[in-house]
């Protein structure tokens, strides 16, 4: 993407009524103003909220918001030029049940209140395949899941779609080590009975991995609030 194109998207993002770009930093005090108030002050309804973390262009948020008018959707990513796609499409379609939040996933506890979110989608996150010390950057690590416990309702659902074997196996270990209720484990999604509905929707990255014939995997599990999460052993 050219620098000019990026700057154009950044400028447009500033004008979108459903794009929020709070200036949050590590250790900074205070929360985002809509924390705990998304339903009352932005969506103006009491419908459940689904959050897509590392949403990229926001394909899942846009498609689900379009299909399910009785629920609200928020795409979260740090890259504004990517989110512009979903924000611009949903604005053009006149959708009122979707928003985009440009921030680091690490800051989501500053952006969502207790029990405010019912479901989380994570599609094709970076697998962080480096040394063990980098595993804590995985969006399904015990560290990140403990962030989600702050705002995901008790036993709320977490969905992971990935092409990466290591991330898939690692996430299963996190689930097993912490006794999280595993609802679906599809090691080859396209050949499983679960390959219907939204799961057939392909994100930008999924299409790229399809070209390399990578096997797509899917996990769906519950996250209780009262579990003190730990990392799996080696
Ligand atoms: C591999 S891309 C996948 C994008 C999209 N979900 C898809 O499937 O096409 C990973 C995305 O996660 C975002 N991301 C990674 N770590 C993040 C973090 N800690 N906070 C916010 N966004 C993050 C990146 O900016 C990127 O857009």
Whole-angstrom Rg: 17 Å
Number of beta strands? 8
- What is the count of structural domains? 2
Low-confidence stretches: none
Strand order of the largest sheet: 1-4-3-2-5-6-8-7
From the structure above, extract its key features.
7 helices; alpha/beta; 2 domains; 29% helix; 21% strand; globular; Rossmann fold; 234 residues; binds S-adenosylmethionine
What does this molecule look like?
This protein is an alpha/beta fold and about 230 residues long. The chain has two domains: about 1-20 and about 55-110, no CATH class; about 115-234, 3-Layer(aba) Sandwich (Rossmann fold). It has helices spanning about 5-15, 40-45, 60-65, 80-90, 140-150, 165-175, 205-210; strands spanning about 20, 50-55, 70-75, 100, 115-125, 150-160, 180-185, 215-225. Helix 3 (about 60-65) runs parallel beside helix 4. The mean pLDDT is about 95. S-adenosylmethionine binds near residues 104, 105 and 205.
Topology readout:
Layout: H1 3-15, E1 19-20, H2 38-43, E2 49-53, H3 59-67, E3 72-77, H4 80-92, E4 98-102, E5 117-123, H5 142-148, E6 152-162, H6 165-177, E7 182-186, H7 204-211, E8 217-223
Parallel strand pairs: 1-4, 2-3, 2-5, 3-4, 5-6
Antiparallel strand pairs: 6-8, 7-8
Helix pairs in contact: 1-4, 3-4
The structure holds S-adenosylmethionine.
